[in-house]
Amino acid sequence: MKVDYRTLYLKKRFPLRISRGEISGGENLFVSVTDGALTGWGEMAPGVTEGAATVAEGRAQLEGFCATGLEGAIHDIWARAHAAGVGACALAALDMALWDLRAKQANMPLHQLLGLARRGVVSSLTVGINPPEVVRARVPLLLARGARALKVKLGSTDGIEADKAMFAAVNEAAQGSGVVLRVDANGGWSLKDARHMMDWLATRGVDYVEQPLVQGAEDQLPELFQNRALPIFVDESCRLSTDIPAFAHCVDGVNLKLMKCGGITEALRIVATARAHGLKTMIGCMGESSVSIAAGASLSALFDYIDLDSHLNLDPDPATGAAFKNGVTLPADQPGHGGCLNA
Fold first, then answer.
1. Domain end: 38, 73, 107, which one?
2. Residues 142, 196 within the same domain
3. Are residues 138 and 242 in the same domain?
4. pLDDT, average across residues 229-238
5. Integer CA distances (angstroms), 295 to 18, 96, 195, 249, 265, in order
6. String of b and e for 193-231 (b: at least 16 CB within 10 Å)?
7. Structural contact between residues 313 and 12, judged by C-beta atoms closer than 8 angstroms
8. Contacts of 152 (CB under 8 A, 6+ apart)
9. pTM tops 0.85
10. Helix, strand, or coil (residue 185)
11. CATH of the domain at 216
């Protein structure tokens, strides 16, 4: 098999600010694997905590590993790459490209190859941390895109009063739309603030709170979990399936991302482990185009909640294949995962 690489800058239509900072765009690495007749596509969004801080670092990791050969089953290739130290985000690109190619060789949509229905649930569209006046202008644009659920980023460095003001602005702008509201603090709250905000948000109809405490503070989750006002999902705290048993007794669900876990192969294990512990499941994304979003959408039938929306905030999206219809990011109805770069 032949492996090729292409680097593109993905510019966000609106900069995304979360508790850890603001992102206006960045370079992603696109990986294609061909057997001579068919091509599978994958994508890497770099990240320090995802194992490759830059495109150059991720490409070097993949080139070194691929030089040893890509023979064998995809699960075995994943295990060898992980053992060789290939970062999760770089491995995700190779893994999704291999699954895309395998499904095309079988002439089947990837979801069908995996034994899944072509089904999804409503995908949240993200509202980044912004002043209330910006939020009031931004939310109607998301509603016009067909949003049926909004994920509100909180955990502002200005404190919980700023969070309350921003959430109130979202609520006001969404009034009467019927849109569902969810909250992600990205680890921006202390234990005390998390408990207070969860009580406050529960009275305002929020579905759940994601990553209320910073990664590394998992020992505080049991206290927060006790008498919680809202379901708790962890995101940054859950990278691999082996992480789950340690906190399964004190969360309600886990959010996986292909860039965090190394792609579809480990995502399947995360879902199985979460279900075995009685937890809800969610899939999210980072700064990804339609290539990676399409790969994630192929797994849609496995999840209770979905946040596959980063491609909708690109100007432009250099890829196609992740349709957003009636508030749902749908799996492709064609061989492979459906995502590919535009010519």
1. 107
2. yes
3. yes
4. 97
5. 25, 6, 35, 30, 11
6. bbbebbeebeeeebbbbbbbbbeebbebbeebeeebbbb
7. yes
8. 127, 166, 167, 170, 181, 182, 183, 184
9. yes
10. coil
11. 3.20.20.120
103 and 133 fall within a common domain: no
Domain assignment of residue 230, given as a range: 112-341
How many domains in the chain? 2
DSSP state of 326: T
User: Please, which residues bridge with residue 319 across strands?
Assistant: 341
Please report how many Cα atoms fall inside a 13 Å half-sphere around the Cα of residue 173, on the Cβ side: 24
pLDDT digits (tens, 9 = 90+) for 76-97: 999 999 999 999 999 999 999 9
Instruction: Count H helices and E strands in the chain, helices first.
Output: 12, 15
pLDDT at residue 120, as a whole number: 87
Q: How far apart are CA 265 and CA 271, in angstroms?
A: 11
Q: Which two tokens stand for residue 203?
A: 């009275």
Q: What is the CA radius of gyration of the chain?
A: 19
How many Å apart are CA 91 and CA 259, to the nearest integer?
Answer: 8
Residue with tokens 């064609």: 334
CATH number of the domain that residue 72 is part of: 3.30.390.10
Alpha carbon dihedral 12, 295, 123, 182, in 10-degree steps, equals -80
